[in-house]
User: Fold these one by one.
Assistant:
Number 1:
Amino acid sequence: MSTLDPVRFLAKNMRVDLALIAGMIAPGSRVLDIGCGDGTLIDHLFQTKGCDARGIEIDMAEVTRAVAHGLPVMQGDADIDLTYYPDGAFDYVVLSRALQAVERPRAVLRQMLRIGTRAVVSFPNFGHWLVRWQLVSTGRMPMTATWDRPWHETPNIHPCTIRDFFVLCEEEGYVVEQWLAADDAGRRGPWRRASWMANLFGEQGVFLLRHR
Amino acid sequence: MRTGLQTHSSRPASVPVASGAGRSYGLAAMDQPTIRTDPANAVSHTRVTFDDGLMLECGTTLRRHTVAYRTYGTLNPQRSNAVLVCHALTGDQYAAEDHPITGKPGWWDTVVGPGRPVDTNRFFVICPNVLGGCMGSTGPLSNRELPDGTLIDEPWGTDFPPVTIRDMVRAQKRLIEHLGIERLFAALGGSMGGMQVLQWAALYPEAVFAALPIATASYHSAQNIAFHEVGRQAIFADPDWQNGQYWRTGRIPARGLAVARMCAHITYLSEEALTRKFGRRLQNAPKDSTEAISLFGEMFEVESYLRHQGSTFVQRFDANSYLTITRAMDYFDLGADCGGDLATAFKGTGTRFLLASFTSDWLFPTNQSRSVARALNRAGANVSFVEFPTDKGHDAFLLEEPDFHRTLAGFLRGCAIHAGLDAGG
């Protein structure tokens, strides 16, 4: 993909996240996937787990592709449209690799846990050692496989680290039911017990949250 | 319930078939004082009459009412593959076949037919003419009914009761029951057809598995009512309107109705589309014109085009029907009918929705579809919502729009899986 494509959300390889996120979702549940792209995850959840899975996507071309595949997806903006769903409408609300791209991540998380019993959130980890090293050694914004756009045109306006996210969950009173760190190919890292290790070596974090 | 299938057949269409595919659109029809007084009875329509009463929202009960309709495809043995197509203001039941009066292809033959998005090889498609229409369903052209139920040999005219979108839908429900169908697999339509679809889903949620309101809104906006009023005033201003009793002289208000159509037609297009199709190109005015336009010797192509639209329209549409149906659209406000919150109209619905809109549609702009989608979200409904980029304006829903058509087909395919319809094809 050209780095000049005017997309708002980080382009994501659903295949990478798919297994990790789907693994956190119970069969037969009601799921809303925010930033669902062409609907790969909701299709997967319907086909393999019998979930009532729906999607919201901001990019109209992706929405069209999803609906033309028979998937229930509506065009909408996570920062705006979540307010229109009733409390507890879903068992899971998924935000995959898009938290760092929304205008108000904290408000979006609150909405997710208002309309859903649980939230599944994945995001690229800005605490990864390579990111840290590049900033330290060059004094410039990092450019890695995950953070692959110059600072002035990245859609990722709210980068955070795995540690930052733990702190936010604490502040907001969310229970982290499960978490894991993975590399960019979706392989789970062996850092389950030490979050500082995960924050250094994990390229992305995946969290399952609920209200206390 | 006693019903009778009646096929009325009288004289063949005596109407000149619309010509004018070329550049030069005649003014003849607009200048002729008389064309026909009765487009409905000029051809035979498939129709069914119900005589156990239809209570209208206005309080009047029609003792008998007729629904003219067309069907395409075959109803399966489980009666589970029925698709209702609802037509727009000036549409009719001839969705997917040549029109019996104009000879033109069906108004939605790009969408309905074998191998089309609404595939008649798979689905049994039903398209009724709306209550208040002029193609065989009960409307201002029908014989007037006295309060005791006797019919007199005179049309209703402007005394036809003010019908609503809900009245239209309730009449259609009778037709669906008559055809032995408990649940529609899908209901779809654009513009006023979309209003009917929303009304269907709100009124009979258990009878609609999938609803596809396209290029529509949950209420008619002030701007849209305003345009309708211009059209109605054009009809009233025509001396041949004769207080709506034009059958007495046999002169129809062709000029007024044509102007109404011309005005409305502008709202169906977009500035970009008009520029693309006509720009500022001129053409010679027809020699036989006695109109003021001849003073200038030439006219813009867009003027000629609009006149053509006006003149062909009056050949197939009744002025009193136009007044009745525009009013029904103006009255439509589904949210207001449900205590001001549209979401309550759909509370707990199991229907799957596809809202579709078009970028250059300024008559039913995307925001109106989006607010319906949001209301459906508030109601917890399963809703898909897509806006298609096009410069063709409101009319885009009737035209060749590959992305739109692919999306319709895919949405219906997905719904068929969830409905347990045989996924073949």
Number 2:
Amino acid sequence: MDTAFLIETIIKIVIVMALFSALAGIGTYFERKILAFMQRRLGPMNVGPYGVLQFGADAIKLFTKEDIIPTGVVAPVFKIAPVITASTAFIAAAAIPFMPQFTIFGYTVHPIIADINIGILFILGVMGVGLYGPLLGGMSSANKYSLLSAARAAAVFISYEVVSGLAILAPIMMVGSLSLIDFNNYQAGGIGSWIVWSQPVAFVLFWIAAFAETGRTPFHLIANDHEIIDGFGTEYSGMRWGLFFIGEYANMFFISFVIPLIFLGGFGDGSVFGALALFGKVAFFFFFFLWTRAAWPDVRPDQLMWLCWKVLMPLAVINIIITGIVMM
Amino acid sequence: MKNEQFNNRNVDNDYFLLDIEDYPTDGWSKFKRVVKRSLRIELFVGLWVVLREMIVFKKHTISYPEEKMPIGPRYRAVHEMKRLWESGTERCIGCGLCEKICVANCIRIDTKIDENSRKEVSEYSINLGRCIFCGYCAEVCPELAITHGGRYENASDQREHFTIFNDMLTPLETFKNESQVEFEGFGAITPHEDERVKKTPLAY
């Protein structure tokens, strides 16, 4: 391991951390604005022109609030839970190629922190570990709503993980690799070679599972504000709650990268246009997360389990069988 | 925004009953409902509706401190003291009826005899923290001197906060450019009152 590689990796880590922490903050601004526009409201308007500095005000508030550890909580677990959510979201980003490789000052940069050969498995696994944040935070909070939320987190976890894993198995069979770079190169031939055309069912299933994975609105039942206060976040305040928040939004961004990379051609042939197209696709998927939040109602936990186990999982299994028969 | 929509108390007859199907009872009809709902892609109708609202961009928010909703002409907010149209002197004669009738006990009035041997109001205060804005003071006032106004922003940092006579009195400039507004609510004379006045027998 030479020094240049070490420096490059550290720089990439710092850039990804800084960029996506900031993006998570700005993502809240977009979310509030878009939801407001869809509901005929104005959204944040007062901090800065059209409220663009709102996330700065939120950040100041979160950073300076008192860090309250209530009596009765299991303090070590309570303290570590938000860190799990935030850190796993960023660890998952290690295997995501954000851009095609480019050359700067005669040095070729691969905008992926670690091109490991089990990329998708790593991403799904680490994102799955992220649900330990709500689970542990909810269980250690000494609050019945948090406990309910932890139970729901466990229910969501065992439901969606099956669907996302089985749904992605069919594309993996086609590509024959788990690295997202290989996925991208498999689809480099243009729109016609996107996996979504040959695996539409897997695409839809993985997309649905992504909503459960990130806990966004049709499946926003872990921290369902109108039923169980803020769920696992009820007892949290200040930056610990903020870490949950950053984790959730970073997860949204990363899953928005993963879906196009697997199904929609990623950055294509590696040109500048391909990179811009990838960012456009990411923007669409992020927008869709906000869009559904404005339009759709939440399902109950039992409905989510019904959907995942009785509808989506059989569909995924049938999809795998058909893919296997076609490939033979 | 106009006042008409506040004055129209009649509910429009645009309502209609929704055609709600009965709940399925057996498994086969439940299955049919699931298939029907899945294939009618109702979820995308919802997505289209919110997207349309975003594109149409017709906002209903009123940025409150900068813009305000119009309030009805009979809105009963902080009191006002009116001036006589003829002379510009204050209408209040210091009778004290408003203090007597006040159910919240929030009006204090003190009078004295001035140099012309006329009764004059020396102290007049209303505790807005106690006032329930019932309008009795305006109704009982024989001179239409105290009425309600439209100034509803009377938040305070303590429960007892007062308004005094000179704050409520119509300013002279307002009076001089003839923009003193008569209150149409409690205590106001009804329209066309002049025509309904019977002449006294002495006029015959």
